[in-house]
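Predict the holo structure. Ligand: histidyl-adenosine monophosphate.
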Amino acid sequence: MNPIRAVKGMNDVLPDEIGRWQHIEAAFARSMRLHGFREVRTPYVETTGLFVRAIGEVTDVVEKEMYSFAHHGEELTLRPEGTAGVARAYVEHAVHAKEPVSRWYYTGAMFRAERPQRGRYRQFYQLGAEIYGDPGPACDAELIDMLAAFLGDLGIGDVEVLVNSLGGPLTRARYKEALVTYLTPRASELSPDSQRRLLTSPLRILDSKSPIDQALVADAPSLHDVFDPSDRDHFASLERHLQALGTPYRIEPRLVRGLDYYTRTLFEMKGAKNKLGAGDTLLGGGRYDGMIADLGGPVVPAIGFAAGLERLLIASDNVPSSPTVDTFVAPLGQEAVSYALLFARDLRRLGVACEVDARGLSLKSLLRRANSLGARVVVILGESELRDEVVQVKDLVGHGQQRLRREEALHAVSELLRAPTAGHP
Ligand code: HAM
């Protein structure tokens, strides 16, 4: 019989790898807590109309990459990103009336029907956050600085921080006009997708993946030439704050990002090109001051970002994997098994993670298994220990071994686990 395999572009994360995932998730949760963010969880499935309205009909994500299906007369979609659903929840629960500023973060799977390659999957995980109610630019700078520090904490070097501003509706309208005027005489040279978008959504041509389109837009007018004064001030303040914080950044005037909802501040961070190749964008985000009103809420400014968790994992290969258990309980012979189970239960009550191996292995095999699990301490219980109500506590790092009474042994194991260990996690 043919084995059943996972869906193309959707990957298993096995327990051997999960320690590295959890390390990054914990670092992210810590950074979020330090910056006043609280976690939000929204559904994996939303109505298709939400993404069409929030992300924009003429975007790669909506046109080509969504997993959509009909169910009992409803058009539904597996979320391709987190922002639209989180904004929907913000509007649906009238959160603006409860708090002036909301800082929310999320982690979870997203789904895009893209061509799978290294760092690009059809089910992938994002770490993201959104701020509602703060027009910036101070919080924009804070977010960018926080993210640069987060990547640094993960040991990702050579990070490039790209920033730009798309301006508000006025600037965007002016820019669209300038871009269409520039591209129309060259229209026949554009890719078929871009020829269509010239009429519907010309800004999308700037992030076209076609090399011909890229060459054509290289000399196109810049957004910065048509900035409205308020947009210019916003961007200048953002730069001032970034400079005051000492966050290295580079202005990338062609950065528009692939989603239609952005206004003003935009940013992306790239890194580890040698490991990620073309898909080296670790995270991206920006301001989307119009979305909450577009979804039926009041006018509330918003900014956010999302990072690809798999890309962070590929980029930060020095993230440690954690040991499976602290303590390994090794009964020698069947007589000692119940005694071992009792002792392990007492250890767990003290918060010590332990595993009992009651398969009847030799001491040598048990010690080998303890090492492979990354245990620091082995508790050995043989028939003589059972008779004398003692246990042997073996320190796999300090290499000492003590024969102790039960209560003393519980205490000794906790103490050993508290002691610092050179080179041991
Ligand atoms: P995005 O640029 O589409 O933005 O995705 C953010 C990050 O998710 C990317 O930089 C990349 O690391 C990761 N990513 C995207 N697609 C894939 C894929 N197919 N496989 C693996 N990783 C991927 C957003 O999603 C916006 N919601 C960000 C945002 C939040 N803007 C404002 N608030």
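The chain has two domains: 15-168+228-315, 327-416. The domain at 327-416 is CATH 3.40.50.800 (Rossmann fold).
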